[in-house]
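R.M. (postdoc): so does anyone remember the format we settled on? I'll just put the structure tokens first.
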């Protein structure tokens, strides 16, 4: 490495591999918020960058004859990221968490990509970027053409042998009305609605011994991830069902509910009216 300070040149044998590995793992997990072992001492990544690495880099670049304006420009970007704890990764994480308050995962990731591109075109360094806001995402022309773009993938499921009373507790705890039932291999076996479950528990003689397989609707109507969203909406209306498990090669990968389709339908109408 050109212009490396003498005290760090060829010192590989004096640095513990375990320390290097630990630094690598911490940097990968925590980024600018991590702590690093440097010269046998624990330092925050921020302090290491600002107090050690940046001055070292400036000295080396100057010794190499790099134009001062270029040095100032690029090192100031690194300095700004460290001072503000604002790296590109932190922007993505914070923006995603903010968008997920109202948007589904797929909508959030698509919106982040579009907003990131918009921020990039400004020429501003990433540490000056504002996090992505819901209002920005709502103005984007997000396509809701296929099921995989609107389905919920953060699934809560039950095993067919789970106790029905336990299933009810899970549904109440997570405030959900539909619970897919899987076998041990992740294959969809049925679906339970809260209304169906409550009715069963009230009238069943099995009582506390009833299991999910006793209550679930077997062979539920399903849909594939690449099917048209409008077809999914019409299918739910035609079959008078309030949810559609999304299945790919027999494996449950998502679910659409009547609440999801109502929200998407309003968004599609709003976008259509805006174009008109």
């Amino acid at each position: 490495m050109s212009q490396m300070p003498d005290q760090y040149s060829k010192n590989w044998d004096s640095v513990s591999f375990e320390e290097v590995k630990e630094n690598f793992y911490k940097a990968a997990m925590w980024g600018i918020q991590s702590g690093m072992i440097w010269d046998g001492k624990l330092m925050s990544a921020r302090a290491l960058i600002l107090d050690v690495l940046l001055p070292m880099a400036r000295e080396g670049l100057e010794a190499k004859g790099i134009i001062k304006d270029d040095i100032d420009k690029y090192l100031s970007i690194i300095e700004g990221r460290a001072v503000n704890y604002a790296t590109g990764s932190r922007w993505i994480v914070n923006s995603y968490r903010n968008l997920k308050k109202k948007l589904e995962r797929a909508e959030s990731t698509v919106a982040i990509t579009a907003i990131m591109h918009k921020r990039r075109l400004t020429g501003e360094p990433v540490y000056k970027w504002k996090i992505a806001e819901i209002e920005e995402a709502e103005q984007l022309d997000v396509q809701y053409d296929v099921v995989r773009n609107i389905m919920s993938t953060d699934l809560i499921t039950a095993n067919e042998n789970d106790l029905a009373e336990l299933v009810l507790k899970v549904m109440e705890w997570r405030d959900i009305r539909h619970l897919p039932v899987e076998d041990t291999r992740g294959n969809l076996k049925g679906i339970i609605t809260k209304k169906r479950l409550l009715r069963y528990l009230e009238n069943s003689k099995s009582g506390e011994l009833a299991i999910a397989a006793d209550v679930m609707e077997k062979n539920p109507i399903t849909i594939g991830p690449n099917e048209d969203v409008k077809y999914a909406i019409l299918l739910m209306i035609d079959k008078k069902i309030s949810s559609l498990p999304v299945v790919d090669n027999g494996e449950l990968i998502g679910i659409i509910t009547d609440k999801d389709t109502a929200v998407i339908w309003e968004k599609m109408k709003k976008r259509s009216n805006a174009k008109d």
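R.M.: ...and that's the designed sequence above, right after the tokens. Also worth knowing: Residues 6-83 form one domain. The radius of gyration is 27 Å.
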